[in-house]
Design brief:
- It is a multi-pass membrane protein.
- GO terms for molecular function: ABC-type transporter activity; ATP binding; ATP hydrolysis activity; ATPase-coupled lipid transmembrane transporter activity.
- InterPro entries: AAA+_ATPase, ABC1_TM_dom, ABC1_TM_sf, ABC_transporter-like_ATP-bd, ABC_transporter-like_CS, P-loop_NTPase, Type_1_exporter.
- It is found in: Cell membrane.
- This is ABC transporter ATP-binding protein.
- The protein has about 600 residues and is α/β, with parallel strands linked by helices.
- It has two domains: about 1-330, ABC transporter type 1, transmembrane domain (ABC transporter transmembrane region fold, Up-down Bundle), CATH 1.20.1560; about 345-595, Rossmann fold (3-Layer(aba) Sandwich).
- The protein has 20 helices and ten strands.
- The strands form two sheets. Strands 6-7-8-3-9-10 form a six-stranded mixed beta sheet, sandwiched between helices.
- Strand 4 (about 405-410) and strand 5 (about 415) form a beta hairpin.
- The longest helix is centred in the N-terminal third of the chain and has 50 residues, at about 60-110.
- It is elongated, with a radius of gyration of 36 Å.
- The protein binds adenosine-5'-triphosphate (ATP).
Length: about 600
């Protein structure tokens, strides 16, 4: 029942390709039926030979030749139908595969960021790659096979009943027992539970293997201790145990089914011999008996296929369930009539936020009644102790998560009322951890503005201080990141991300520790370039190096999800609170870095943005 509903879901996913799938199934049935024709021809020939026993001249030679050609033609047609069916099913399968992957990728781009944090990227990759791939295999191969594995035995048994109902009935006994075993084998709650465990154990083993390989630097540094290997080994052991359990559970039923289906022939023999013994001179029955012996292996083959269909269906239903779960994940609600702000002040009005899932009871607030305005043309800096909520504030601006209460607006328009695409157009964001795509450096920068010319890309790269190191690469801007061992350092990747953000030239610029990995010399250069470019924009900067935001028009000190202090650098120093302590600590750390040499009090050697 469960499988059936998943099969119908699968057909729903197949959507407009149903026509091709039906054609593939029909062609598969036709091919199966045509493959029986040679047996019938043999039957007819044997029949004629028996009837003409002892009188070869009584044989109708041309009629026999025609029968032979009919058998040949039927075989050729069967192969043609098989080929055409396979073409239809493969075309349908690959179109479904393509459409599903596109739909899935579009959907996951629209769901909330919370989903991506909850769902390991490996799992999503597995759904988009492996689950979809299995559907392709099922549709291309197993679906037509299933249809013919059901239709062909039905037609054959019907035909055998017409020839001799007694022998046909006897053949139905092992078939019935075999199918009942199949249903029990795959349908029981125990079997389904085992199968689910098997799948989970396989995934867990994959995930821990990836984790182990990814964590190799740490493993090497700290030595390959039992603990570093333990989780992976436990996962492998669990997988082994569940595989053995499953084999144990299915082995009896599996063997019995295979034996029963493979030996239909042996069921036909005793009853045939018995009936023949009763009518020793019945030539017609003898010929029918021969046909039964010829046809029963053709009956076994599709029935054995049914066994694989059962396991294929189970595998694909798991994938379908997962794909469905992704599609069931709600997308970020888009406004019915999106509004576009005409000014770009950012306002946070009494914003309360926690990371609990939508619909779940409120968790510990990460942001507690945050209120501020970041004005256009000014730089607002978020500083404060680690874990205070700075990055969360920046991420909420992009609507990665929905606020629990309060409102965030751009130019007076609540971000809920701005369409996601427009919102992304308004904001350039350089994240703490940069992600570069497996593409050329130029394409990675141009991502900020697809219409930009090569000269624009180079200009942005110059300002972000990455032009010179790009030029030093063998393929320059055409170097593919990640290919042939071309990897960039953290600071270089960040500078590419800054170039990308500059090229986008959006009215709002958010820099979350954008130059954290950059060396002092390059940071100086970048800050100089940025200072030019950020004029007239709303700039939100998160920085731990306080010297870089000293010139900000507004500094918000975020501690424990609240704004502990706010003001300009000098004002905050005058308060004698957290900011002043942070500033002193920062100065002390900088002094320590240069070997304790005395620095000028005004900090001229520091780099100042804006
Ligand atoms: N996806 C998440 N799910 C649950 N909690 C989170 C998530 N991201 C951050 N947090 C928690 O929210 C709090 C604020 O984190 P946030 O990253 O905003 O701090 P931050 O001030 O930017 O820190 P840092 O300076 O170290 O980057 C922290 O307690 C953190 O553990």
């Amino acid at each position: 029942m469960r499988s059936k509903s998943e099969l119908s879901v699968l057909l729903d996913l197949a959507g407009s390709r149903k026509g091709l799938l039906i054609a593939a199934s029909l062609l598969s049935i036709v091919s199966g039926l045509l493959q029986i024709v040679p047996f019938i021809v043999v039957y007819r020939i044997v029949d004629q030979v028996f009837r003409a026993a002892g009188q070869p001249e009584a044989l109708d030679g041309p009629a026999l030749t025609r029968l032979g050609f009919a058998a040949l033609a039927a075989l050729a047609a069967a192969l043609a139908a098989l080929y055409a069916g396979a073409m239809c099913s493969h075309i349908a399968a690959f179109r479904i595969l393509y459409a599903l992957r596109v739909r899935l990728s579009e959907h996951v781009a629209k769901v909330s960021m919370g989903y991506h944090v909850r769902t390991p990227s490996g799992e999503l990759k597995k759904i988009i790659e492996v689950a979809v791939e299995k559907i392709e295999k099922f549709i291309a191969h197993q679906l037509p096979d299933t249809v013919s594995a059901v239709a062909l035995p039905l037609v054959l048994i019907g035909y055998l009943f017409v020839l001799d109902w007694r022998m046909a009935l006897i053949l139905c006994v092992p078939i019935g027992i075999g199918l009942a075993i199949q249903a029990r084998m795959y349908g029981s709650a125990d079997a389904q539970g085992h199968y689910r465990d098997f799948q989970h154990a396989g995934e867990e083993m994959n995930a821990t293997a990836v984790e182990y390989v990814r964590g190799m630097p740490a493993v090497k540094i700290f030595g390959i201790t039992a603990a570093s290997f333990l989780t992976f080994r436990q996962a492998v052991d669990r997988y082994r145990k569940i595989s053995l359990d499953i084999t144990d559970l299915f082995k009896g039923a599996y063997s019995l089914f295979a034996v029963l289906m493979g030996s239909l022939f042996t069921f036909a023999v005793p009853i045939g011999v018995l009936l023949l013994g009763r009518h020793p001179g019945d030539q017609a029955f003898a010929i029918t008996f021969i046909l039964f012996l010829l046809v029963s292996p053709s009956l076994s083959a599709p029935l054995v296929k049914l066994m694989y269909v059962g396991s294929g269906l189970r595998e694909v239903s798991e994938g379908v369930r997962r794909i469905q779960a992704v599609f069931n994940e709600p997308i970020v609600a888009e406004p019915e009539a999106p509004r576009r702000p005409s000014t770009y002040d950012i306002t946070f009005d009494n914003v309360v936020f926690d990371y609990a899932q939508p619909g779940a009871p409120a968790g510990r607030p990460v942001l507690d009644r945050i209120g501020f305005t970041a004005r256009s043309g000014e730089m607002t800096a978020l500083v404060g102790p680690s874990g205070g909520g700075k990055s969360t504030i920046a991420n909420l601006l992009l609507r990665f998560w929905e606020v629990r209460s309060g409102e965030i607006a751009i130019g007076g328009v609540p971000i809920r009322e701005i369409g996601t695409e427009q919102l992304m157009d308004l904001v350039s964001f350089v994240f703490q951890d940069v992600h570069l795509f497996y593409d050329t450096i130029e394409a990675n920068i141009r991502m900020g503005n697809e219409a930009a010319s090569h000269a624009d890309v180079v200009n942005a790269a110059r300002i972000a201080c990455c032009h010179s190191f790009i030029e030093r690469l063998d393929d320059g801007y055409r170097t593919v990141i990640g290919a042939n061992g071309t990897y960039l350092s953290g600071g270089e990747a960040q500078r590419i991300a800054i170039a990308r953000a500059l090229l986008k030239n959006a009215p709002i610029l958010v820099l979350d520790e954008a130059t954290a990995y950059t060396d002092a010399e390059n940071e100086h250069e970048i800050q100089r370039g940025l200072a030019e470019l950020i004029r007239g924009k709303t700039v939100l900067v998160i920085a731990h190096r306080l010297s870089t935001i000293r010139g900000a028009e507004q500094i918000l000190v975020i501690r424990g999800g609240q704004i502990a202090e706010r003001g300009r650098h000098d004002e905050l120093l005058g308060l004698g609170g957290l900011y002043e302590r942070m500033w002193r600590a920062h100065r002390a750390a900088s002094d320590w870095k240069i070997g304790g040499a005395k620095r000028k009090e005004d900090g001229d050697d520091e780099i100042v943005l804006a």
